[in-house]
Design a protein that fits this description.
- Helices cover about 40% and strands about 20% of the residues.
- The chain has 13 helices and 13 strands.
- Helix 4 links the parallel strand 4 and strand 5.
- It is globular.
- The termini are far apart.
């Protein structure tokens, strides 16, 4: 029986608890939050016997095998380090740490202690993402990706979290080096890093406060971001983050030397993009029929998953957690390689370094603004 503890009993911890309790051979033995009432309420919702307000006390009293860190990012490093030093494997919610240095230190400590660590990039393990990965490994692209396009949007008007962020000038997200971007974009960036070849890509980033937020008096929260990435082997990628684009997309496109793939996380659709063209007018008629067949196939597949009760919003999280636990039990590689965790952190650092504080709205930028002339990082 694996003994699991959770540090941080906010909204996201419920999804973790649900996933953990749906995996055989696991028990949540402790919950911890600096607000003891939060830990108590969590323990009541999920029938957890012990709850605490201090991490050290929880580790000493419950002696968990694995700890899930679901606190604000500013505390990820210190809590994860403490857990590793006490001999626990650690699952850290995204973003992994505040910067690459912290990420390197945690991963080095885990390796030194013979422990395992992972990060909550659960969108890499949705049903459709796993299908895409299998097709890439089977060689459908005709080789490694030549170019990628990742789009990860966030609707600022869709939930209480976003409203609190915009209204509260002391909100913890505003104290992150990358503010809103740091708390959201790792999902979209990690989809790119999985397929990059080199470890030191060049990054060009341009971000700004959207005209909508600017008109509402917001001058700090960068909610529009455009990034160009190129690694040492000339594999390239575009990354787009937007709070204003409609529809609000969560997509990845992979282009290989032979074919391409299109992944839609929102609709759980995977489309094969045929590299060769048909002759003459056949190109106008055959591809639409083939695409219609693919969309129908996705519909039927999603329907089967729904009927099997395996088509819920957190299926990727459950799969990642279960895979992480299995890697610990069987002493096999972790589901997200440490290289990808570090590369995601490194790209995010490069992005934030190119976004000066108080970036003005796009409509306020003069054409010769230095923000538009963002330098490329050294190779």
């Amino acid at each position: 029986m694996l003994k699991i503890a959770i540090v941080g009993c906010g909204k996201i911890s419920d999804a973790h608890a649900w996933a953990i309790q749906s995996i055989d051979g696991c028990e949540i033995v402790g919950a911890c939050d600096t607000e003891l009432l939060m830990a108590k309420q969590f323990s009541e919702r999920f029938q957890v016997k012990r709850f605490f307000s201090g991490v050290g006390e929880m580790l000493e009293e419950t002696k968990p095998d694995i700890v899930h860190v679901t606190t604000p990012p500013q505390t990820h490093y210190s809590i994860a380090r403490k857990c590793l030093e006490c001999g626990c494997h650690v699952y850290v919610e995204k973003p992994f740490t505040l910067d690459t240095t912290e990420a390197e230190e945690l991963l080095a400590l885990a390796t030194q202690e013979g422990l395992s660590v992972t990060v909550g990039h659960d969108e890499q393990f949705s049903h459709v993402a796993r299908r895409m990965r299998r097709m890439v490994r089977a060689g459908y692209l005709g080789g490694r990706p030549v170019h990628m396009e990742s789009t990860w949007c966030y609707d600022l008007g869709c939930d209480a979290y976003a409203n609190a962020l915009l209204r509260d000038r002391e909100h913890w997200v505003r104290r992150l080096p990358g503010r809103l971007l740091q708390n959201v974009i790792s999902h979209g960036v990690s989809k790119i890093t999985e397929f990059l070849v080199g470890d030191n890509p060049q990054v060009i980033a341009h971000g700004f406060v959207s005209p909508l937020l600017w008109s509402a008096g917001e001058e700090e929260i960068v909610d529009e971001l455009r990034v160009i990435i190129c690694d040492e082997q000339r594999v390239t990628a575009y990354f787009t983050f937007s709070s204003q684009m409609r529809p609000s997309l969560h997509e990845l496109r992979l282009f290989g030397p032979k074919n391409g793939l299109f992944l839609d996380e929102d609709q759980q659709i995977l489309i094969r993009l045929r590299g060769k063209r048909y002759k003459s007018y056949a190109e106008k008629f055959i591809p639409p029929v083939m695409l219609a067949g693919q969309y129908l196939g996705n519909l039927l597949r999603n329907g089967r998953l729904f009927l099997a009760s395996d088509f819920h919003m957190d299926s990727g999280k459950k799969y990642l957690i279960e895979s992480f636990y299995r890697s610990i039990i069987e002493n096999t590689p972790v589901p997200i390689p440490y290289r990808e965790i570090l590369l995601t952190a490194r790209i995010m650092d490069e992005i934030f370094e190119q976004l000066p504080p108080g970036v003005p709205a796009a409509t306020k930028l003069p054409l010769n603004s230095s923000v538009l002339a963002t330098p490329i990082c050294s190779s």
